[in-house]
Write a structure and sequence with these properties.
- By secondary structure, the chain is of the alpha/beta class.
- The protein has one domain: Rossmann fold (3-Layer(aba) Sandwich), CATH 3.40.50.10140.
- Helix content is about 35%, strand content about 15%.
- The chain is built from five helices and five strands; from the N terminus they run βαβααβαββα.
- Helix 1 links the parallel strand 1 and strand 2.
């Protein structure tokens, strides 16, 4: 069965948060989490692999925290997702730590409608579950998007 692929962008310092949201996504019938460092060996982890993974996804989900806000890979992935013709703007779902809201600049900033914000790890779990539930609802009729 085809699944909606969701690219998760994160800092390795936020691996626990990545695991929470990855598990929520992969526990749904219609969604599949794509996490690049887990998809390729460390020797293959480079810009081309990230680009290929981003191009295969319908949804982009950056985890934005004090750990990731200045991370070069996360910022480049955000720029690529926004510049890509593969991912629609309405299919970019940032999940944002509240204490960095004023520090956000560029494509994802505090002026955007950022519906998925959290304060702490417990709040992150609740927010992540709410985000995944919204994605499940949005793509519940996923197969209707495709013409065979």
């Amino acid at each position: 069965m085809n699944k909606v692929k969701i690219f998760i962008s994160y800092s390795t310092l936020d691996s626990e948060k990545k695991e929470i949201i990855k598990n929520l996504i992969n526990n749904s019938e219609k969604l599949e989490a794509i996490v690049v460092p887990e998809q390729y060996s460390s020797l293959d982890y480079n810009a081309e692999k990230i680009k290929k993974s981003l191009d295969s996804c319908m949804v982009f989900l950056p985890i934005l925290t004090s750990n990731s806000i200045n991370n070069q890979w996360v910022n480049q992935e955000i720029g690529y997702a926004f510049g890509s013709n593969k991912i629609k703007l309405e299919d970019i779902y940032p999940i944002v730590e509240n204490n960095i809201m004023n520090d956000l600049k560029g494509f994802i900033s505090s002026s955007n409608d950022l519906n998925f914000r959290f304060e702490n790890n417990k709040d992150f779990s609740v927010t992540a579950e709410r985000l995944v539930n919204q994605l499940v609802e949005k793509f519940k009729n996923y197969m209707e998007y495709f013409v065979f």
